[in-house]
Amino acid sequence: MFYFRRYRQFLKRAKRICKRYLSYERYSFKFKLIFIYVFLSLLPISLIVFISYHFYSESIEKQISDLIEYSLIQTSENIKTKLGTYKDLIYTIVSDEDLNYLFSKFNNGNNVEKITALNSIRERFIIYTYPKWEIRSLAFINEKMESVAYEKTNPNISDTVWNDLERKKAVYQRGYSEDGIFLLPTSALNYQNRKKEQLFHMILKVKNLKTQEIIGVLVLSLQESVLSDICNPHSMPEWQNILRTYSFIIDQQGQIISCADKDYIGKNVNDYLKQDVSNSSNQYNKIKHIPFKFNGSAFIINKRAIDKTSWVIINLADKGTLFYQVNFFKRAVVLISIGIALVFTAIILIITKHYSGSIRRIVDGMKLAQSGQLSVQLELENKDEFFAIAERFNKMMRQIKHLVEEVKKQKEDVCQATYRQKEAEIRALEAQINPHFLYNTLDCINWLAIEKEEYEISQMLSKLAQILRYSINKSNSIVTLAEEINWLKQYIYIQQQRFNHSFECILDIDEEAKKFPIHKLLLQPFIENAIIHGFEGYRSGGILHITINIVEGHHAEFRIEDNGNGIEEKTLSKIVCNINSNQEEAGIGIYNVINRVKMYYGNQAKLEIWSKLGEGTKILLKIPELGAVKK
After folding, report:
1. What is the C-alpha to C-alpha distance for residues 430 and 409, in angstroms, rounded to an integer?
2. Inter-residue contact 300 to 284 (CB < 8 Å)
3. pTM above the 0.70 mark?
4. Distance from the first to the final alpha carbon of the chain
5. Helix 433-451 crosses helix 385-410 at what angle (to 10 degrees)?
6. Quick one: DSSP state of residue 287?
7. pLDDT mean values, one per 10 residues, the chain (631 residues)
């Protein structure tokens, strides 16, 4: 249970952090524009580049694989045709009646007949093999392991590869056990006083044409270069040279039968590849060592079986060369995209700097007006929508200043009670400078947001307009506490957005108090002071607690508490003294609300303030029900 609680606490903490730093509302208008630009332009461009590269690469690879597959089919057919020529030759030799007779004499004749048959057989072998340079040897081996052979470039009868008894036994047993022509893998045969040669062999049983009795085997030995020249011809097509393709032949066990690099013949191809080629097709691989002409680079494997044999042609295509143009295209597109993104980002920054500068000057003017400087005037250079807003603001401030001056002139001609009432109305008017201004200008900003497709901003402006309509319409009228609280919730929400959720508000309202009648905007100055002054400098952790209860039957008690900065003792004493003496030094907001409270409720209202520096402020306001106020 302990670890489960710790886990739940961790999740709650992570959720608060994400809400604080990843909340869309807490960021500025400029940041939102840049974010929208990145999301709507750079992200699609990146996706297009990635998807295009992926499909382009797959398309190129498929086309190259199809081309190589077609080449392998041609190579396979050429090898099949070439081997068919030699098979025809072997069948022709075995079907030769004269040679068949000489083979029988060689097996069963006396010494003279054997020697005569041997020479005659060699002469016939010369006739058959002379036109074909690639044939290195033609030999006949009987069951007694006696052999007669003809080897090109080796006139010495006694020095042949078939003098080795073990080799003759292996060849004879393999040929005797197979039906039809059998292909022996390539092997390096050593000749006395000559370099070794890579040869592969074709074996066929020899039968007596009359009795069909097996009298021996015929072995045709061919140069391995017959196969390698077909797989990797000297005059390769241009596309094969460009792609750096390489082909070789292996048998079912993976042993290399033919290869342009002769040192690898007879070795197993799986010793050089990371993956068994017998279980892969058209796959990327890496070479373990440095075989052939590849230098450890990635390549694509294609393979095809040769019909009527147990051999397979393997083709390697260099992936680096194949995708050189594709990678070049990818890098070019990425660089161009980055360049375009930088240019567009610079343009967005210039545009947002202009708009954010105009908005900042308008907001600064509003703050000055809110602090009481009614002579403030805005100056904007560009004749755009913000210029129109500034002009309306300037006109409104001139009108307000004129009204204030007129009221001050009339102040000496009215009685003290009328003066206090007028003073309260003036203070209420001053407190509503920002709502009046915003209500007149929000419509322009709302249409500007819609033109920029900032629908979230438009929605917030609409909510703000609803708040302002409530505050402006009959500002001194009487409403139920439920209506006032509903307005306060919206007001606090706007302030939370304004201060990036640096504080949270807790409302604890007695259900019975919701029908209690109250003058509009009576609590707003206390809430505003707690937020602006109490939470000044806060980024998070602020708590505003509002409690409303019905006490003593017909009285409403309001407790407004915050854990903010608090008020210095000297300043608090001055505020309390000024409140008791109705002096203006207490601040426009507090002075105005005290004046209104005394006007509406007289001495039956109670207001107390407690505060300690660094710990917060508590305000207690207790007012009677309007119907119970004693005149």
Report:
1. 17
2. yes
3. no
4. 64
5. 170
6. B
7. 62 63 57 68 70 74 76 85 89 90 88 87 88 85 88 68 80 84 74 67 89 90 84 61 72 82 79 56 40 56 81 78 68 78 76 71 78 77 71 83 78 58 56 55 74 71 72 73 88 83 91 88 86 88 93 88 89 74 56 76 84 90 75 46
